[in-house]
């Protein structure tokens, strides 16, 4: 009986080792797939994109929605952002154009592009919020775990993987966003002919985007949070619970992404109220290599 014991032990060890290797292989395959999709996407010279935010649960009865669309052509990126404000029966329109290290903006299609002089955190933040290039950079910097998702239709050319982001890095990123919005010049005056300052949305914690944490509560019907004093940004974010995960679908033949969804759950205390939110940012990618050229303002003036 004893002479068979080493064989049994060896078999058990091999089983454990092989099982561990298989798990490592699966994890490695998921990371490798992400890197291949990321690299292939970043190498693209042109493509179009569009998307929207969805507020799935919130304390607010009327949540502002964001719709965005744009395209990349070489070094230039054009984007149009529409901020829906249903309680005021209006939509704020903002167009952005980035070329190299220059940023341009306009609030109406009939307007001419205006160069954004100096540092403008509000406009740069708006561009980065919905730009898929920035999304992939965020994933790369904050990813905690990458896993392959079940193939819903093995007969087609599409698969998906999920990326869980690191909560501590998310909080640090959110603090930076909020602090930039309180800096001098962070507000863009007069959008669409209105004198009300334009403040970009926060990609995380959508109710915070209303500006009420600054001491200027949003004016809309339904439950709202009334801020009576200036909020300590670090304190607010430190006690926040936040988790986010990207789901990225891609074409197995081209290794290019077709769409990605960032799902965000957050909970935080503000003025003795516990705010819980679940938002999604959906982005669709298409027309690789076939978009209309982007004419930069410099080229137009020649």
Automatic annotation (TrEMBL):
Name used for this protein in its record: Uncharacterized protein
Keyword Signal tagged: yes
Position of the signal peptide: 1-20
UniProtKB keywords: Signal
Lineage: Bacteria, Bacillati, Bacillota, Bacilli, Bacillales
InterPro entries on file: DUF6612 (IPR046720)
Species per Swiss-Prot/TrEMBL record: Brevibacillus brevis (Bacillus brevis)
């Amino acid at each position: 009986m004893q002479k068979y014991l080493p064989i049994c032990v060896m078999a058990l060890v091999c089983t454990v080792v092989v099982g561990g290797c298989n798990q490592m292989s699966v994890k490695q395959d998921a990371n490798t797939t992400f890197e291949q999709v990321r690299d292939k996407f970043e190498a693209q010279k042109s493509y179009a994109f569009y998307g929207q935010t969805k507020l799935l649960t919130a304390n607010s009865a009327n949540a502002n929605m964001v719709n965005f669309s744009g395209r990349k052509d070489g070094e230039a990126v054009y984007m149009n952002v529409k901020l829906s404000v249903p309680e005021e029966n209006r939509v704020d329109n903002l167009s952005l154009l980035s070329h190299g290290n220059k940023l341009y903006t306009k609030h109406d299609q009939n307007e001419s592009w205006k160069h954004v002089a100096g540092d403008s955190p509000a406009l740069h933040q708006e561009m980065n919020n919905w730009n898929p290039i920035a999304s992939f950079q965020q994933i790369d910097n904050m990813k905690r775990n990458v896993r392959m998702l079940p193939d819903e239709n093995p007969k087609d050319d599409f698969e998906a993987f999920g990326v869980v982001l690191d909560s501590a890095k998310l909080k640090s990123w959110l603090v930076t966003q909020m602090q930039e919005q309180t800096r001098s010049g962070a507000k863009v005056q007069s959008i669409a002919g209105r004198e009300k300052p334009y403040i970009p949305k926060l990609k995380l914690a959508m109710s915070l985007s209303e500006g009420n944490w600054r001491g200027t509560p949003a004016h809309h019907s339904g439950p709202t949070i009334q801020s009576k004093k200036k909020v300590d940004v670090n304190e607010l974010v430190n006690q926040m619970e936040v988790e986010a995960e990207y789901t990225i679908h891609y074409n197995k033949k081209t290794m290019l992404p077709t769409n990605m969804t960032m799902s965000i759950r957050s909970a935080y205390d503000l003025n003795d109220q516990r705010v819980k939110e679940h938002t999604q940012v959906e982005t669709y990618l298409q027309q690789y290599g076939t978009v209309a050229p982007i004419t930069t303002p410099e080229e137009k003036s020649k």
